[in-house]
Amino acid sequence: MSNPQLLDTLTDLIAKAKRAGADAADAIVADGTSISVTWRMGKLEHLERSEGGDIGLRVLIGKRQAIVSSSDRSAVALKELVERAISMARTVPEDPFIGLADKSQLATWLPTLDICDPTELTAEQLIERARAAEEVARAVKGVTNSEGASASWGTSQVAMANSIGFQRSYQSSGSSLSCSVIAGDAKKGMETDYDYTSAVYVSDLRPAEEIGRGAAERAVKKLGARKVKSAQVPVIFDPRVARGIVSTAVGAINGSSVARGTTFLKDAMNTEVFGPHVDIIEDPHRNRGSRSKPCDAEGLPNRRRNLYDNGMLTSWILDLRTARQLKLEPTGHAARGAGGPPSPAATNIYMAAGMVTPKALMSDIAKGLYITDLVGQGVNTITGDYSRGAVGFWIEKGELTYPVNEVTIAGNMKTMFRRLTPANDLEFRYGVDAPTVRIDGMTLAGK
How far apart are CA 92 and CA 183, in angstroms? Predict the structure, then answer.
């Protein structure tokens, strides 16, 4: 849904910047309304409603640029915004790669996306969802405390315009519900876990009772965790943590890192990074996709593409600036907030489902680890070395046995990618999604 009033504000702001001395300019506004609540130990702990947004202006004078943002849209404030931006742009160093798109690069058609739910949730409805989730969770045997349940609803309106005639706006919405509880006691040990659901449409959220029960059962199952001996074993990643592998694979092909040479995949274009059975896909136009958008933040068209096709790397993630650095065509991946310049980012990414069930994927493992949680940020993006704390369940003869904690898994992402096999249980839940995956031959450091 287009918002003429917002677009008029932006085009007027750009015109002022041009009159003040800018060679080119673009502007963005992001407005939003949101409500969030937290319910803990049977009581309302937090309730917040916010309305408002920011407007951001980028001006270019030659090869210099400046970005200024404000939450105040009065005539006086916008006049000052232009003056500050022009003053800054005249003093900053030159950047040979900055600049707006050529008119021929701009999107001339935008798809109509189903990404805004007309349903509005009230604070009372959110409180009821959070209350129901925590109540079910606390009723599960073994749960001894609660970190609370949170529910939120929000809608946002984004408008963009630039000095070469591009104007677009769109509206989106989102709702979420989460619950986190503690099981056990100080004598026998305590464990915590959570469950979570988010969706564009309220009707697509998982039931509150399911979220509460899921959080509680996960926490209780972790009680009595043991250490295991160091070994080299197959590892199964639960979908909730397998998402991190997808994020790493996409982050490693971000144009900013490629241009700086600070990624372990900098020389991997058109080579097999994964096995031939692995696809990682981006779909920015997916209806009801949690991060869907009709174009990128520089007005370029975006599209569905296989970033990794049958294991082969096919595309970098590029905005205009990184494309110019690499002397390549932009890929429509610019993202931007009101207060910063565009930067490359992917949207609605997922690893395609494989051919086997999670049970079949695990059936031939004599000894291994099923991971439900990872601890720390132990990924070296330059070398690909990987080392993270892990929590999960020990696998023996293809079956889950006892819970495991205080272990570390290690490897190198290049080798891990080549040894990865996906299961067939992909679900779209988070905006970055993956099925259960198996990686053979990982080093496990335990006792």
Answer: 55
Cα–Cα distance between 79 and 61 in angstroms, integer? 18
CA angle in degrees (0–180, nearest 5) for 102-108-114: 130
Return the sign of the alpha-carbon dihedral for residues 265, 271, 275, 277. Answer: positive
Distance of CA 62 to the CA centre of its chain: 34
**Predicted confidence band of residue 79 (pLDDT cuts 50, 70, 90):** very high
Dist. CA 373–CA 327, nearest whole Å = 40
Mean pLDDT (the chain, rounded): 96
- Specify if 88 maps to a domain: no
Q: How far apart are CA 43 and CA 148, in angstroms?
A: 9
- Residue 29 domain flag: no
Domain range for 406? 225-447
Specify whether the CB–CB gap between 361 and 236 falls below 8 A: yes
| 372 contacts 215 by C-beta, under 8 angstroms | no
Report the distance separating Cα 217 and Cα 212, nearest Å.
Answer: 9
Return the DSSP state at 91: T
Task: Compute the average pLDDT of residues 14-34.
Answer: 97
